[in-house]
Amino acid sequence: MNRNLFWKFSFVVFIVLWSLWEINPPQSRSLIEEFATRAVNTDTNHAAIVAQARKLQELNPDREFANLREAVGTNDIAGFFPFVPVAKELDPARAILSRLQRDGAGKIKLGLDLRGGTSFLVGLDTSSLEDTNNVGSTTREAAISQAIEVFRRRVDRFGVAEPLIQPVGDNKILIQLPGLSEADKLSAKTQIEKAAFLEFRLVHRESNQLLQQGLTAPGYQVLQMKRKLPSGEEVINKYLVRRKAELGLTGQYVARAGVEPDPMTGQMRITLRFDSKGADLFGEVTKNHVGEQLAIVLDGELYSAPNINEPILGGSAVISGDFSMKEAFELANVLENPLQTPASIEQESSVGPSLGRDSINSGVRASIIGIILVSIFMLVYYMLAGLVANVALLLNVIILLGVMCSMQSTLTLPGIAGIVLTIGMAVDANVLIFERIREEFATGKSLRGAISSGYDKAFSTIFDSNVTTLISSVILIFFGTGPVKGFGVTLTIGVAASLFTALVVTRLMFDWMLSRQMLKSLPMLRLIGDTKIDFLKYSKIAFVCSWALVIVGVGYGIMRGGDTLGVEFRGGDRLTMSFEKKVEMGELRKSINGIGIGDAVIQYEKDISSGIEVLQVTSAFDSGDK
Fold first, then answer.
1. pLDDT per residue as tens digits for the range 260-317
2. Full 3-state SS string of 93-146
C-alpha cells in the first residue's frame, strides 16, 4: 500500500472507530444492575438493597429510580461507590444514583414517539395580565404563545432534543420531554417553573437610617439579601427598595446572558448584555443616580445592590450571588428567555410512546427490509462493485449514528425514515458512479482509467444533487421543531456521510484492490442494452404533463383546505379516559380509524405522584363525541 492510500485508509478507520465509540453502549443499562455490578466493598447490606430493589421493580416496572431510592432508604451507600464525590451533596444517595443512571444511559436517544418520556402540565397565571403595566395590551393568547416559545428555547438550551410543547385549554401548556434521567427531571422542572422576571430598582438613599428606626417609605419595600462569608457564615442584609423598576428597566431588554467567575472571589456570576433600547435606559438610570445603589431583583428576590459610581453606557451589567456553576447556567438560560406570566407545574407524569408498539415495529421492519432488498439488488446487479457499495452503506449508517450520538440528537420514526432516505441517496450515488465506469470501460479505457474517469465525471452530478437536498434539510433544522427537526438533522448528517462513503470510501477500496492487483475486471449485469431513444424529442410533452400534475396536486390540496392538516397543526379535542384493562395501542388505533376519525395521537399516561394510569387521545376538532 502506497503512502497516499495508507493515510486515507487510516483516516477512514479513525472515523469508523470514533463512530463506534460514540455509539457504544447503544441502549441504556438497568440502573439496578449498574448499582449491583459497579459497587465495591459489597456486603450483606448491599445485597439486601439490591434484592429489595428488584422486588419493587417487579411490582412497579415504570419507576426504576424511585424503586432503588426506596430500597436504599436511610442506608449510607457512599462506601460502595468511592468514585462518586458526595462530600458537598445534601442528598448523597440521590447524587450517587443519578451518577449511575447517567453513566448507564444508552448513547442512542429515542424520541417520544418511540420511547415515551416525562410530561409536565404547566399552568400559567394569566389573571394579572390586564393589571400589569409592563405587559400593556398583551392578550392572553399572545402571553401563552410567548410562553410556548420561551419554554421551547429553554428546553433547547437545556439540551433536550425534540420536545413536544403545545397549548392545552385557555391557560395551560403541555410539555413532554423524551428520556430524562432523574437529575435531568429536577433541572427541567426548575427551568420550566422559573419566571425569571428581572427588575432594576433603586435603593432608597437613606435605606440604612430608615430601617434602623423601623421605618419605611411610600413606594418602597424591604428586601433581604443573603451572603456567605469566607468562613461559611451566612449574613442577611436588608435594603429599602423601590417597588417598581426604574424607567421600566426589566429583563425584557436583556439580549444575552452568560456565566463567568468573579475575579475577586472566584464565585460564579451572571453577565448581562442589554439590547440597544435597554442599553439606553440603563445608561440613563446610572447617569441620573450616581452615588446611589441599584438593586438587581429577580422573581422578587434581591440578588445584589451595587453602588453606581459612574454612568454605565456600555449596556452591560453583572448579577453576583452564591451560585453553583449549574445554578448560574440555569439562571442565565432563563434570563435570556423570561416569561411574562408566572408558571407552575400542575401535574407531572410519565407517558408511553405516542406510536403504538405495532406501528414502531412496522416502521422499523419496513426500514430493515428496504435496506436488505437494496443491498441484495446491488450485490446481484453490480457483483463486486455492489459488494463495495454495500460495505460503504454499512459504514454510512455507522458514521451517521456516531455523529448523531456525539451531537446527542434524538432518533424518532421520521429520523429512521431519514436514514432510509440517506441510504437510498448513497445507493443512487454509487449507481451513477458504476454506470459511468461501465461507459468509460466500453470506450476502450483500462480498468484503472475507467474507474478514475467514472468518479471524476460522476462527481458534479452527485455533488449537485446532494447539495440541493442538504439545503432543504438545513432549512428543516432551522425552521422545524420536534420530529420535523429530527428528520432534518438525520438527513443532513446522512447526506454528508453518504458523500464521504460514496466518493471517498468506495474509491479507496477500488484503489487498494488495484494496487494489490486483486482487481482484473469489474463485471456488471445489464438488463437493458444500448438504446437509441431520442428523449429530447418528447421534452415538451413531458414538460406540459409535469406541470399539469403539479397544478392538479396543488389545486386539490387547496380545495381540501384545513382537512390536509393533522392535530399537530390544527389542534383538536383531547380526551382523558380511565380503564380497567390496558389495551394494545394497535387495537385502539384500528378502532379509532374504524369510526372515521383520521390520525389521532394516542398515549398512555401515568401520574408520578398517584400512580394512576389513564389513556389520552387527541383527535380533530368536534370528533371527541364519536
1. 888 877 778 888 888 889 899 988 988 898 888 888 887 778 878 888 878 888 888 8
2. HHHHHHHHHHHCCCCCEECCCCCCEEEEEEEECCCCHHHCCCCCCCCHHHHHHH
